[in-house]
Amino acid sequence: MRRPLGVIGLVYLSSLAVIFHFYSQLLTAVISVAAAAAVAAAVAVKLIKRRSRAGFAVIAAGLSVLFAVLSFSAFTRFRVEPILENYSDKEIYIEGYVCDELSYNDASVTCTVQTEKINGEPVKTKISLLLTGDLDVEAFDRVSARIKTKPANYNYLLSRGIYLYAAEGENSEFSASHEKHISPYYYAVMLRQKIKSVFNSSLDKNASAMSRAVLLGDKKALPYEVRKAFSDTGVSYLIVVSGMHLAIVTLFLRRLFDRVRLNNTAAFVLITLFVLMFIALTGFTPSVVRSGIMMILFYLSRLLLRDCDSFNSLGIAALALTVTNPFSVGDIGMLLSFAATFGILLWADKISGYLIGLLRLSEKERKQSDSKLSLRRRVWLSIRRALRKVIILVSVSAAATLWVIPITIIFFGSVTPFTPLISIIAYPLTFAILISALVFAVFGLFGIVLFPPAALLNALSGLLINFVCGCSKNGLLRIKAEDGYFFIWIAVSFTLVAVGYLIRARKPYIIFSIAVSLLTLTIGWSLTEMFADRSASLTIFRSGSGYTAAVRKDANLSLLSCGGSAKGRSNVIDELRRSDTVDNIVLAGGENKNYACFGEISDGFAVKNILMFGENFDTHLVSDEEVHFFEDNTSFELELNSDVSVRVIAVNGRVFQYVSSQNVSVLIVPEKARLGDLPEEYRTADYALFEGNAYDPELLGCGRLLSVSGKPLNGAKPEIISEEKPFRIKLD
Fold it and tell me: What is the pLDDT of residues 170-180, one digit of tens each?
């Protein structure tokens, strides 16, 4: 069997991803039975027909699937569940240290604590801790705290071995000493902070933010609109440190070492040390770890004068990242990284070779040196070389894009087919920014400010941001998978490719196919935009005793509640997929049922603004989001879109929300609220939505009463919202 480690590692990774993200006992049983049957059949075929080539591959793949099921179950049973059973939903006393950089959000800070003791007993686990107030705490400070924990249900946290989170509450205790926990990672974090300060002090705002993003993976420094533009155009991988960035930097170093004629052994040692430092510097990002492992194996094979099989290296990287922590597949970025790399290894050379041959741009042997050629001939050869590089770049981007499409459809509900074209300009700009930022940071650490690279970084960053933001304004660039024309476009494109393959198509057919595919896409998008429903509405999804309330107008989406049981949560997420971004989330406190969907929404959507009631709100914040706290006995108005606004009224520990447009108004009444606390001008809404029971409902003069709980309202009979069908209120 060729490439055994590639087959084993990639099948193992894929199996874990399916089990983690779509877990059910039935699914696990079906996968196990299918894998066991495939192994048994392959063994039988090998016994009968010993020269079967596919037999060993099927056996290896089947055993990898079975091992994935076993390791996932064992890890859950013996690692994760004991921590949750012993310490979740309980008040515990922890002693440990802050094990990474702190993430600041408005009036709060989130830190990850590595425990050394829990309740006086030696226990090592990680807890994500949300702190408020003016606390004197820094990375790697030793801390102690008395907190009440919750299970961490967010995939991003689980993938990093964090199974508990806690928010500082009224009865919480937290103290930090400036005694540091020193480890190799401590020095990497200190170096990262130093580099950030070099960028911030010497570059303009855009250049500093872009340099921190491409070199350190700190994309939070970029404005929300810029991050969204990169996401909409499908080139967000450029501002997230990935294997591409590490490959560029190591290639730059290798060329530098070749120029100074450094021997292979010394070059390998220096590159390996740099790769390990870069992995630590970027916070052990899975995509960088994957690339680092592959880079070390590649340069090791060169040192040993052996061929390095990239597929085997990719499989080794998959095993290294997942064997010790099967939950690492919860990181969508890691799955995208492996899928893109696999696509590049499998298809990039074939696509570029075909296109170069089709356009007759193959580099032929020249009997004369370039110096003896005419000026016209030299110009033409230079153009041909440039075109070949462009084709290679487009081919790499196209191969990666094609292989990540299934993942982006499943988790983000959309695809960006024009990413390869945008990358023709965006990729070289990012490459130049990355190298310039690296050189600038190295000299800046020694107090040397290089003004030419600084000016170059300022110019290139502004150019890249303006280009990507300009492209993002074209709505055709991003296709939502639930739009009907998406499936028509996929069917037409697949048919054209299949026919072309069967008839061994030449240049005219390929040009015709591309034109038909683009025409189908353009017409479908135009008709969808022409007949799209652009009216504003409030949709209420009830699931269990909780609900999600979504205000939408065209692409604008805001949530006034993120509740609901796990049973109906997927339906809510599917409905919300029509938007890529949640503009606002209002978390108004109350019981867990009012924000149970918050984790899935934070994982699957870009969230622009979060408003939270109370500083001790019992939920976890993801670090990329903008969070604002509001206190009791306050009132403010928030514009949700061009036609709809909401008045948030916090009074006596309860938060009312008054949604209004020019024609319709809706009052959301929290559970156990006293209607007498609500100002009179808000008591006559067209609709009143009750989370549960309330005091003095007779004070309301609303036209229609709705309820998501069915609890009595002191004689009033509200209409109960069904779990089977969302309730929609047109607001204009």
Answer: 678 888 888 89
Question: Could you give the CA distance from residue 458 to residue 447 in angstroms, rounded to a whole number?
Answer: 19
Is residue 496 within 8 Å of 514, Cβ to Cβ? no
Where helices occur in 160-242 by DSSP H, the ranges are: 184-202, 205-216, 224-232
Beta strands in 518-653 (DSSP E): 537-543, 546-553, 556-562, 581-587, 606-613, 627-630, 634-639, 645-651
CA–CA distance, 95 with 120 (Å, rounded to integer): 8
**CA neighbours within 13 Å on the CB side: how many for 665?**
16
CA–CA dist 433, 591 (Å, integer): 47
User: How does pLDDT run across 423-465, given as a tens digit for each residue?
Assistant: 888 888 888 888 888 888 888 888 887 777 788 899 999 999 9
Tokens of 695: 């005091």
Q: CA 485, CA 491: separation in Å to the nearest integer?
A: 10
The span from the CA of 94 to the CA of 118, in Å, is 5
Question: How high does pLDDT run on average in the chain?
Answer: 84
Specify the pLDDT at position 1.
60
Kindly give the residue spans of alpha helices, DSSP state H, lying in 324-418. 332-343, 349-358, 375-412
- Within 10 angstroms of residue 63's Cβ, the number of other Cβ atoms is 18
Taking a C-beta distance cutoff of 8 angstroms, is the pair 198, 185 a contact? no
Which residues contact residue 240 at a Cβ distance below 8 angstroms, ignoring those fewer than 6 apart? 213, 217, 219, 285, 287, 333
Pairing of strands 108-118, 556-562: unpaired
Tens of pLDDT, residues 190-235: 999 999 999 998 899 889 999 998 888 787 778 877 887 887 787 8
Q: Quick one: CA torsion of 140, 141, 145, 148, rounded to 10 degrees?
A: -30
| Contact (CB, 8 A) for 246 and 293 | no
Q: What's the full length of the chain, in residues?
A: 732
The dihedral region occupied by 106, where left means phi > 0, alpha psi between -120 and 50, and beta the remainder, is left
Contact 677, 654 (CB under 8 A): yes
DSSP state of 104: E
Which two tokens mark 542?
A: 């009830």
